[in-house]
Amino acid sequence: MTLRTTINVLWGCLIAILVAILYLQKDEYELPSGWFEIFAAIAIGALIFFLARMLARWLVLAPALAGYRKSCVAGDWVRADRLCSRLELYFRDSSPTLLKLRMQRASALMTLQQYAEAKNVLDQMRQVTLAPEELPWVLNSMAWCELEVGQPNKAIETARSALAAAEACRYPNIRYCKGTLGAAYVVAEQPEKGIPYLQEALGPGGGSPGRYFRGFTAAEMSRAVQYAGGHNKAQATRAFFLGQALEKIGQTEEAKEAYEFAVHVYPDGEYGKLAQEKLNKL
Q1: pLDDT tens for each residue of 183-211
Q2: What is the rounded distance in angstroms from the CA atom of residue 163 to the CA atom of residue 28?
């Protein structure tokens, strides 16, 4: 049973109970006669209608929202996704709330590495008009899902649209868009095109591919690691794909430095572990 159906059933039961109570107590009240009696009945009916609705929402919706938030905080993404799908059905007529829930559900599915399902949710979001600051996130997430499900060329196209949207609205997390585009180029066997985007996404250092990590000053390395402290998973991902790109064009030593950076900032993450495997083989 959906949340909306549960609330409506409970709502009807509460109205019936309140009407029955009022009927049983009718002899204790003296209602005005004539038109005033009609108006009084309407007012009482409206009050019963309102109170029953609010009580039903409080008894059913509030625990569902609280459980969803608690699951997100605890990292229980399986339960969070299940609750979010129920909440989506309830808020289907409320576009802002539904959009926010779908963004959260897509994030949960991507955390669970259920990229095909996340892509379906993001496709639904693209069917509506998005705010300028929401569009880059949706397109970038879509591009990453396409990359994960084996569609790198399509991911490049989507990621380029995400980057254009990010530049148009001065999106604060534009590095994510650049990182996704760079990774897509690497997977699509176009490493030379991906390297500049991955360099920019990683942050300070810059320069040509062959000296990206070599020649860092202490201050530059400090800033890169400090930035990674809040974005360690993303930084490890970018460094891993940069390492792959450098390895594909024959710059093995520089690739090792990129892999080492990925391991340094996020050793227990997916791409930190993959980078360590690469280092063991080189």
Answers
A1: 999 999 999 999 999 988 887 643 333 34
A2: 70
Tell me if 66 is assigned to some domain: yes
For residue 27, tell me if it sits in a domain.
no
DSSP symbol at 190: -
Domain that holds residue 116: 94-189
Cα Rg of the chain, angstroms: 27
CA distances from 105 to 40, 80, 114, 119 (A): 46, 8, 11, 11
pLDDT, average across residues 58-62: 65
Can you tell me the distance from the alpha carbon of 14 to that of 85, in angstroms, rounded to the nearest whole number? 26
Residues 224/216, Cβ–Cβ less than 8 Å: yes
Alpha carbon distance 267, 258 (integer Å): 13
CA 193 – CA 182 distance, rounded (Å): 7
160: exposed, middle or buried (C-beta count within 10 Å: 0-12, 13-18, 19+)?
middle
Helix (H, G, I), strand (E, B) or coil at 266: coil
Instruction: For residue 30, tell me if it sits in a domain.
Output: no
Give the residue among 226, 231, 236, 234 at the shortest CA–CA distance from 264. 236
Cα–Cα distance measured from residue 134 to residue 247, given in angstroms and rounded to the nearest whole number = 35
Q: Which pLDDT tens digit goes with each residue over 120-171?
A: 888 888 877 778 888 999 999 999 999 999 999 999 999 999 999 999 988 8
